[in-house]
Structures are given as structure tokens and as C-alpha cells.
Amino acid sequence: MAPFSLPAPAKLNLFLHINGRRQDGYHLLQTLFVLLDHGDTLDFQPADTLSLRCDNPALPVDDDNLVLRAARLLQQETGHTAGARLHLRKRLPAGGGVGGGSSDAATALWGLNLLWGLDLDVDTLARLGLSLGADVPVFVRGRNAWAEGVGERLQAVELPPLWFLVVDPGVSVSTARIFGDGELTRHTPAITLPASLGAATFEAFLKEGHNDCEAVARRLFPAVDKALDWLQSEAGNARMTGTGACCFAHFADQQDAHNALRHLPEYWTGFVARSTEISPLHEALATLRARQNSGPA
Ligand SMILES: C[C@@](CO)(OP(=O)(O)O)[C@H](O)COP(=O)(O)OP(=O)(O)OC[C@H]1O[C@@H](n2ccc(N)nc2=O)[C@H](O)[C@@H]1O
Ligand SMILES: Nc1ncnc2c1ncn2[C@@H]1O[C@H](COP(=O)(O)OP(=O)(O)O)[C@@H](O)[C@H]1O
């Protein structure tokens, strides 16, 4: 098969409520995932052995990288022995709460499924993904979703189109550190997802929500605290995604989001992105499959 590239989009948790804790220490959550049109890219090339390169020298390219872990898991699961030459082009901040590592893993699962002709279905890939991390299944399925349980019970949702400004305060936040904090609120009452999320219901639903991890992240990471305050004064609806560090605000149109980005203090980075109905990964997979089916020109 000819070399190909696939996107690994970012996600935001529009809110994140912690409703309790399981016996094994894992937290029970309610969260609303939205997939963005901005993210990393993974290049795939057939090869006899497995190898990974990454343009960000701060990231490991051994079995600590979720891309290689996903690849080895697929080999174990299917007994497939061929390799692949993988190149990860990183745009998403690691430990940023935008799910970069999880999304890279989901893209690796789908891309290698195609490259190796494995023909595994979406449920199998989501099950394998969950063993790599709680956030991997939402990227495998590729739809905006309401998540419950420890994040594995997903219900696809249709959301009105939104523009976001995402601010990276430049710190990497460990998910385990936030969840291990003694002051984390773990008893937000469970809420019910409205039957449909039109523009007005959606705004009201968002206002009802919050991120329980924000207070801990603000305390442990002053840069997160400052970024949230800045976004709040700029846009009025600032929130943190996941367990941090990135913060975001949503805007009615692209222009307003870009205007806010222009005011961003130079010591932070940020990007403007749009919500997607279908993940850019799934759009790209559909194009690749159509090209394959139409055969050589
Ligand atoms: C809470 C979320 C929301 O999106 O935070 P972010 O990581 O995106 O910031 C995620 O579900 C995180 O998913 P993920 O990053 O895949 O976490 P995992 O690797 O599965 O877990 C890392 C550690 O976080 C803790 N953990 C994770 C998920 C959960 N529901 N309860 C937990 O207590 C556990 O200590 C676990 O060892
Ligand atoms: N491909 C990858 N991209 C980013 N981080 C990775 C990757 N593989 C493993 N990691 C590790 O996973 C950690 C969390 O990564 P990431 O998914 O970006 O954070 P978050 O879950 O906060 O969005 C990083 O600190 C890094 O050590």
C-alpha cells in the first residue's frame, strides 16, 4: 500500500463533573467531549519492522509513546508480524488536556488496521483503545460524545457548530496528579443529558456545567490560574479542558475567536479551532477507502 497520512484531532471537555470514585480509585465522571479540526498528523509507510519518529524531541519514541503501544497491541491481538514506518508530526501540547496522546493512539489503531489489512471493526478498536487510556475510545469512534462511567460509556451527541480559542499556558499537567489531589471535589450530583441540544438548550446546558478539576489545577499551576483569568476577562466563558492545562472559550464566529487570539500575551501560545460533527480522522479514512476502492488510476 502507498504511504498515507491521517489526522489526530484534539478534543475539549466542555465540562467535566466528578460524581464519585470506584473501589479501584478510578473516578466516575460525566463529561461532554467535542472534537476539533486542529491536531497532530501521523504518517504511515509499509516496512518490515515497526519504527517511530517524532518532530518533537521532548516526546519518547520508544514503547512509552502511545503510538507504538497501540501498534504493539494490534500486533499482539491479531498475530500480525509486518511492521510500519511511522512519523508523528506533533502540534498538540503533551499533558495539555486536549487528548493529543490518546488521539495519536486512536489514529495509529485505525491507520495500521488499514495498512495491515486487518479489517477490525470500530467496537474492537474502541475496546483495544480503552486498554491504552480512558480517552482513546472517543477518538476511535470519532463523534462528539457525552461520556459517563470512567469515561468509557459514550453516547454520540449532535452539537451546534462552535468556534474556540484554546490557550496553552505552557505547563504539562499529569492526569494522575490531579486525580490524586486530596482537595479534589468528587461529589458533584449526576445530571441528565437533554434529549436534544439545539443552540439555546446547549448554552443553558453548558452554563449548568463546570470542570471539577479546575480548582486543583489553578492551585497547583499558577499559569493555569492566570490563563483562565485572562480568558474570562476576554471572552466571559473561560473553562479548563480535562485535567488541564489548556483553557478555552467559545465564540459565535471565527472572527471573534481570532480577535481574542490577537490579544493573547506573548508568553502563552493558543490556537483557534472549530468543532466538527465527524472527526477529521474519519473524514480522512473515508477518502482513503474511496481511493483504494476506485483502484489505480
Ligand atoms: C479525565 C480526562 C478527561 O478527558 O482527563 P485528560 O487526561 O483528558 O486531561 C481523561 O478521561 C483521562 O483519560 P486518560 O488521560 O486516558 O487517563 P488514563 O491514562 O486512563 O489514566 C491516568 C490516571 O488518571 C486516573 N484516572 C483516570 C481516569 C478516571 N476516570 N479516573 C482516574 O482516577 C488514574 O489514576 C489513572 O492512572
Ligand atoms: N503520542 C504522544 N503524544 C503526547 N503525549 C504522549 C504520547 N505518547 C505518550 N505520551 C505521554 O502521555 C502524557 C499525556 O499526554 P496527552 O495525551 O498529550 O495529555 P492529556 O491526556 O492531558 O491530553 C504525556 O505527558 C506523555 O508523557
TrEMBL record:
Residues 65-142 form the GHMP kinase N-terminal domain. Transmembrane segments: none annotated. The active site is at 11, 135. Gene3D superfamilies: 3.30.230.10, GHMP kinase, C-terminal domain (3.30.70.890). Its EC number is 2.7.1.148. GO terms for molecular function: kinase activity. Coiled coil: none annotated. SUPFAM superfamilies: GHMP Kinase, C-terminal domain, Ribosomal protein S5 domain 2-like. Keywords: ATP-binding, Isoprene biosynthesis, Kinase, Nucleotide-binding, Transferase. It holds the Pfam family GHMP_kinases_C. It is an enzyme of class 2 (transferase). This is 4-diphosphocytidyl-2-C-methyl-D-erythritol kinase. It comes from Alloalcanivorax venustensis ISO4. The gene is ispE.
